Amino acid sequence: MSATGSMYRTAAMVALLMVMGGATAAEKAEKHAPSDADMIASAMRAAPAGVAKGATIIVVDKDGKMRTLRKGTNDFTCMPDNPAIPGPAAMCMDKNAMEWVQAYMDHKPPTAGKVGMMYMLTGGTDASNTDPYAQKPDAGNHWIKTGPHFMIVGADAAFYSTYPKKADPDTSMPYIMWAGTPYEHLMAPVK
Fold first, then answer.
1. Is 28 within 8 Å of 84 (Cβ atoms)?
2. Phi and psi for 149 in degrees, rounded to 5?
3. What is the pTM of this model?
4. Sheet holding 185-189: strands in order across?
5. How far is the C-alpha of 156 from the C-alpha of 113, rounded, in Å?
6. Of the given ranges (105-109, 133-137, 149-153), which has the lowest mean pLDDT?
7. Is residue 179 part of a domain?
8. Is residue 1 part of a domain?
9. How far apart are CA 92 and CA 87, in angstroms?
10. 152 domain residue, yes or no
């Protein structure tokens, strides 16, 4: 899921693009469909090498279903960038972050007390900093661009209160994305 907007929003957006975009999005994705080896390499760039080498690699197929490209040996799951959406979107997350992303996708509150970590070391797809479900920029949703970063999700509100929660943050420093929502999380740039 980002979370970055990104998180599984990437998976959801891919499925949405395939369904709503009709043949155009599906044709585009199929024309430029990377090989499984390319997708594994892309997914592995999302996290530090030590994490990525043992991670399970999954991808969203053209029918919107998840497919395992490689079974891992640790509790991290990585997803490759998707050429059908603009901007980078490769991500890697631990088990708790996967549960957090599932709650986000289901529009349900995440389980309290399950702190998770996510990596997007190739950067993140641009997203609203205030609306977890915004699909495109508009005057009121504070669209931001994120570079390489990691995220902490599912932490206690007291943890998040120590970081800036501005609608238009300085993305070169740690800040809280989606502040005041059940999906608020720490965005921490990595350079």
1. yes
2. -160, 170
3. 0.80
4. 66-70, 56-60, 76-79, 91-94, 116-120, 149-153, 185-189, 175-177
5. 7
6. 133-137
7. yes
8. no
9. 16
10. yes
